[in-house]
Design a protein that fits this description.
Blueprint: H1 3-12, E1 17-23, E2 35-41, H2 45-57, E3 62-65, E4 71-73, E5 78-84, E6 91-94, E7 98-102, H3 107-116, E8 119-120, H4 132-138, E9 141-142, E10 145-146, E11 151-157, E12 163-167, H5 168-171, H6 179-183, E13 186-193, E14 195-196, H7 199-216, E15 223-226, H8 236-242, E16 249-250, E17 253-255, E18 262-265, H9 271-289, E19 298-300
Helix pairs in contact: 1-2
This protein binds flavin-adenine dinucleotide (FAD).
Flavin-adenine dinucleotide (FAD) binds near residues 66, 133, 140, 141 and 186.
Amino acid sequence: MNQDIINTLKDISSDLEICTNENMSRHTTFRTGGPASLFLRPGSLDDLKKVICVLKESKVEYFILGNGSNLLVSDKGYNGAVISLTRLADIHLEDGNTVYAEGGAMNSFIASFARDNSLTGFEFAAGIPGTIGGAMIMNAGAYGGEMKLITKSVRVVTPKGEVKELSANECDFGYRTSALKREGYIVLEARLQLQKGDQAAITEKMTELALKRKEKQPLEYPSAGSTFKRPEGYFAGKLIDDAGLRGFRVGDAQVSEKHCGFVINRGNATSSEIHELIEQVQKKVYESFGVTLETEVIMVGDFK
Ligand SMILES: Cc1cc2nc3c(=O)[nH]c(=O)nc-3n(C[C@H](O)[C@H](O)[C@H](O)COP(=O)(O)OP(=O)(O)OC[C@H]3O[C@@H](n4cnc5c(N)ncnc54)[C@H](O)[C@@H]3O)c2cc1C
């Protein structure tokens, strides 16, 4: 990365964390991925806005990173700047039942915060191992809940650098997608509309859902959760199982034996192995049932 750009970034603030050639395997739940040319961790929204300005002016491509729990980053890495939002993680209560969270706040922390304040509605997201920014982009959901149902508003930066407040309607949430994703918005903050509830019941629900996850999902291995979106009228995991792919491996990448919808890293998988496995699963399922499996996992970098 050009030293002049690094120097301009250093001038933004002494608090801005700047690394070069940062291995993305340290920042993805698959535990794979090569180096990002630049890795930036702003500690304030103001620094984030300045970082975006510098990168745009310098024509450096950038990528916003939450907790890396829905990403497959190429072994060749990312030729640009990865901006991690994990230091922007404030959570507090606003007027009664509204929880405010910065884009980098982890869902698990928000869920605990809501429980501690006897607020119900966020229990479903406690076990989704990402940030609220990533959850908004993906309209993350589980066990009948989804972000769409609890979002009051979202504050974003548009690709033109404007800061905008969007209502839940304007976010146009769909199945694992949103206008935020389509428009390339950066989620700075979210306001979540929860309801007063009984703290013991909230705790019980969170425990019950955590046990369900532990029982059904291969949480003992690195993964990015469900690899594929649910095709209409089918379940990805069942199609993969019926195609005879339970436990199918490419190197150390494997279709989980516990839950066929998950691709796992048995230990030393590379992103190329995971990518090849995904392609082979898609091919076999299409040949067997004529159903196209689309990935829910987002690919970052070059896989050719
Ligand atoms: C074990 C396991 C279980 C999972 N279970 C579920 C589940 O039940 N339901 C579910 O929906 N998902 C699940 N997932 C997938 C994943 O956790 C979600 O998609 C999550 O919302 C991703 O959030 P993240 O912060 O990790 O985002 P990342 O993976 O870092 O990024 C995902 C996308 O969001 C963008 N992004 C992230 N933050 C921002 C921001 N602030 N502004 C703009 N763009 C941003 C990124 O650029 C990228 O395009 C699971 C994953 C694992 C590993």
